[in-house]
Amino acid sequence: MKEHLRTALLLATQSVPVLPLRRGKLPFRNCPACARNACGGRPNMRTPGPCVCPRPCHGWAAATTDPLILNSPAWAPVWRHAAAVAYHPGGAGVTVVDLDDPAAIAWARKSLPATRTVATTRGEHWIYRGTMQSANGVRPGVDIKSLMAYARWLGPGTSATVALPDAVRALAVKEPSAARRAPQPLSAPLSGQRGVCPHRTPSYLERGIAMAEQSIAAASSAVHATVYRTFLAVLSTHGRCGCLTETHAARLFTAAQVKGESARHCTDAWTNALTTLGL
After folding, report:
1. 66: Cβ–Cβ under 8 A, 6 or more apart, which residues?
2. I need a labelling partner for 113 at 20 to 30 A (CA). Which of 11, 39, 82, 228 fits?
3. Residue 40 class from Cβ within 10 Å (0-12 exposed, 13-18 middle, 19+ buried)?
């Protein structure tokens, strides 16, 4: 439908990666050449963008801000049958807390900071500035949509968008079973250092983390090496005084994973940096 294409093009000018949805609020299926990822798809589907076929394949990973792609002949038949427009929250730098019923909304109002709110068919989307891993069913009626996910575009919403709080990040953290505890490589090194704090103001650390995120995001090649060097720089400056927390590390891991790094590689790079610095 032309209306959906117009909406998509407008969002694309605002750096919001968009894709069409078919009936049932689902992405369009992969084309025959891409069925069952036969084409190889995008690398682990961690970065938004079209498949080289170049139809709107691979679900959320088809999201794009390129008007030439959105207006391309390959996408024209899809827009004619589109039932809605969706976007990749992680690609837009936001996280959507999807509240599916009145009980979930009531919980959010008691437990989460107020932020931009968009009304949905049955509930609300609460939109926060920042990205994290996506997770469904984090509590009754609550899903988190950010990296490697899509959300329906239902309008700009109301109120101002605030920073992603730790309370939302914590929802996606699953407690490992007693029989098989996941290793926690960050806790001891970060909390165990208590040297002289070089931070002149709280903003000094925040600025350092933000610059590190930007450095990783700007990498166009040698992403592995960039991630390691960035982790090393952050830890050499902020790793000895105890101010660097797991929340800061999670932000750096998220930035690296948006560029296609695996969680395991992030952990290895972080551990290697700690070892190099003797932390």
Report:
1. 12, 50
2. 11
3. exposed
